[in-house]
Specification:
Blueprint: H1 3-21, E1 23-36, E2 39-43, H2 48-51, H3 56-67, E3 77-81, H4 86-89, H5 118-129, E4 134-138, H6 166-184, E5 190-192, H7 213-229, E6 235-241, H8 245-248, H9 259-265, E7 279-286, H10 294-309, E8 315-320, H11 340-355, E9 361-369, E10 376-380, E11 389-391, H12 393-402, E12 410-416, E13 426-431, E14 437-444, E15 450-457, E16 461-470, E17 473-477, E18 487-489, E19 493-501
Parallel strand pairs: 1-15, 2-3, 2-9, 3-4, 4-5, 5-6, 6-7, 7-8, 8-9, 9-10
Antiparallel strand pairs: 1-12, 10-11, 12-13, 13-14, 14-19, 15-18, 16-17, 16-19
Helix pairs in contact: 6-7, 11-12
Length: about 500
């Protein structure tokens, strides 16, 4: 064989070997802690209402995937959709897709029926059974009996809570929380009364209503007083902004944006809620429409982190996300994809929210989806009584964070030694709540393997174990990493390294 024939193949081998020998050094500083992790979560909307009534073996298996720390991803919080009553209205609700309608515990007669939302209550109890201790109730809309138009979405593109009904809404919410506790023994740690208030919610796509910042203040004050008078420890989570920009900028939504300043930054503002009973010192927003291109995603989160840091004792939660829109041409929200491409995109987004925006909580949208869209962790047949279920790689990629970053885990400063070098994986590091483990998560979105060397200041690393999500692995145990040795990372994978910390 001629040398000229061998040369191209030899060049490829040399290039591959050179890449394999390239080491990404990550400097981790245990003396520079950042945020403390509160939870990782997903919501029961909307399929939980039906899947909770599926055959026992199937719904138990789905619950294991979501909540078990052995068989699944170990979510540490569960979000419960407190429905507005569109399901009882049926087609007259104006919400075309019956899977996006929701029951209400409040009946048209003004009484409460806690046998409703039975499928969702089943998942509440399944989460508790598997060790979940944090629960959040959220409203997309006030109950239809309190809305302006008698529907669960805002046909007039205005706040759909009837005038002077903030007090009635507060009484309703507290009664629901008390009723669920009496039925299940579960106490909600948080109540989120407002969802994405910047959007009009006028197309009948789901329950929803816009609100002005002044409306949110009125609702929060009424709820805070009612909760304080009850025996419930529940705190209020605000504001579930439709995208992160609205937390620090008025942008295109005057009176609905700059929510950090409106609620926590300016004590003279009429909307100020700092010190209001039961209002948690947390600002919550959704990562939609801010994840591409990645350089812009980082810049947005840097601005957000700086604004949050300017308010003493304020924290940030990323409280809802799925892959939505066209994301600057990088990935589309549709169709459904159970593979690694959306999983890697999801992991990249989690990394940015945790390592750049300092998010203390990270929460996904639909835990269970019947749709042809990148909005689910576990997918199902769109069948109200039975069907098949399909775990996605997005589920397992989220698990690379949620199973190992338990509440109380602290993010540590982690910097690439050569940040200007191209082709390096994303790396973040965390100290376990008991201080005995270092958890490092590596997102390698490249078609070639990577080698990562950890350099720790403020501690000594022992041996580690790896857990890998890739095209062929679902959060599977990988190779052990001896103390001081580099971590070998597969192409197109998410790897969690759990090391002894001495």
């Amino acid at each position: 064989m001629k040398l000229s024939t061998l040369a191209p193949a030899f060049a490829v081998l040399l290039a591959t070997a050179a890449h394999a020998q390239t080491v990404t050094t990550v400097r981790i500083d245990a003396t520079k802690p950042h945020q403390t992790i509160a939870n990782f979560a997903a919501s029961d909307a909307w399929a939980g209402q039906f899947v909770g009534n599926w055959p026992a073996a199937k719904k138990e298996a789905i619950a294991d995937l979501l909540f078990s720390q052995d068989k699944g991803i170990g979510l540490s919080m569960w979000r419960f959709n407190i429905g507005a009553g569109s399901a009882e209205q049926g087609a007259a609700s104006g919400i075309k897709d019956e899977w996006r309608r929701a029951e209400s515990f409040l009946t048209p007669a003004g009484t409460y029926d806690f046998t409703r939302q039975a499928g969702q209550v089943w998942f509440l109890e399944a989460a508790k059974k598997r060790g979940v201790t944090q629960f959040l109730g959220f409203l997309n809309s006030p109950p239809v009996s309190l809305t302006r138009n008698g529907k669960a979405y805002a046909t007039a593109k205005q706040p759909n809570l009837a005038p002077d009904k903030a007090g009635a809404l507060a009484a309703y919410c507290v009664r629901v929380l008390e009723g669920i506790r009496q039925k299940t023994g579960i106490t909600f740690a948080y109540l989120s009364p407002v969802n994405e208030p910047q959007w009009d919610w006028s197309d009948g796509g789901q329950e929803g209503t816009p609100f002005q910042n002044t409306d949110i203040t009125d609702i929060s004050k009424a709820l805070g007083a009612k909760l304080a008078a009850s025996k419930l420890p529940t705190q209020l989570l605000i504001t579930e902004a439709g995208k992160l920009d609205y937390l620090y900028s008025a942008a295109d939504k005057p009176g609905q944006g700059d929510q950090i300043g409106a609620f926590f930054g300016d004590k003279a503002a009429p909307t100020y809620l700092g010190g209001t009973p039961r209002v948690a010192p947390i600002i919550a927003g959704h990562s939609y429409f801010t994840t591409s291109p990645y350089a812009q995603a980082v810049a947005t989160r840097q601005q957000l982190a700086a604004k949050v840091a300017s308010v003493p004792k304020l924290g940030f939660w990323q409280s809802e996300y799925c892959i939505l829109g066209d994301n600057a041409g990088e990935i589309n929200g549709g169709p459904r994809d159970l593979g690694m491409k959306p999983a890697l995109y999801l992991a990249r987004t989690i990394h940015a929210d945790l390592a750049v925006a300092d998010a203390a909580a990270w929460q996904w949208w639909l835990a269970i989806s019947p749709y042809d869209y990148k909005d689910g962790l576990v997918y199902i047949d769109k069948n109200k009584t039975d069907g098949q279920y399909y775990p996605s790689k997005m589920l397992w990629a989220l698990g690379n964070y949620s199973r190992y970053l338990r509440p109380g885990t602290v993010r540590l400063d982690a910097q690439l030694a050569d940040p200007a070098s191209a082709g390096q994986p994303l790396v973040s590091a965390y100290k376990s709540a008991n201080g005995k483990q270092l958890i490092t998560v590596v997102v390698n979105d490249y078609d070639t393997p990577a080698t990562v060397q950890l350099a720790l200041n403020g501690g000594r690393l022992g041996a580690g174990k790896t857990y890998v999500t890739s095209a062929t692995a679902d959060l599977q145990p990988g190779a052990a990493v001896p103390a001081g040795q580099p971590l070998r990372v597969e192409p197109r994978s998410v790897t969690t390294l759990v090391s002894e910390l001495r």
